[in-house]
Fold:
Amino acid sequence: MAEQLYTIPVHDAFAADCECPLCLMWRDLEQSAIEFTMGPSYMEDDNRAVTDKLGFCPEHLRKLYANKNRLGLALMLKTHTDKTIADMEKLAEKGPAAKSGFLSRKSDGDAPLISYIKELEKSCFVCERVDRIFERYIGTIFHMWKKEPEFKEMIKDCKGFCTHHYGMLYEAAASELGSKQEEFISLLNEVYFAGMKRVNEDISWFIDKFDYRNQDAPWKNSKDALPRGIIKTGHTMVET
Structure:
């Protein structure tokens, strides 16, 4: 299969022995984004301006802290909280949202302060960096589907997808393939349900192994059934 630069991560993920190639791509992007965030980039004014505005979600704050670059994280948190304090002090002075009518208990909407907090809680520098590139990977999957016959075999031979990414591909097929989506959806369904049922059976045997009557029976493929089952439900934990 002839590879171009943008197809390499997709090709490598589908060639890997994993429960969801898209989870693998997402994890690689996430790790790269964390390394970028905690690398020399945190000293650059333009990056700091973005991290000051967006902040980080709780999950990525934990992962940034685990990166061990405590000085870099402290510098980002300092300027981020400087901006948050300054912005929110101004908004707090405006008070709560105005009432919508005479003697009404309903307001015209959230107070500016509350709207600011809600927007802040929805944003994350790492998430946005990952999601922006991941969208290109989704487009690349459909590009390879249309242009490279061998890629169809790679999808057929993979172990399936997690529920979240199965849904993402299912939904994207309409806009990416239009009236030609039937073949893709058919294979997507086949691979997804086969993978789910396989892992479901492994989890079932994992449970049965706790029955004393099966204590001497082989584990088959069930020893790592739990982490694989977690991946299948749409959580991108590292496979063991």
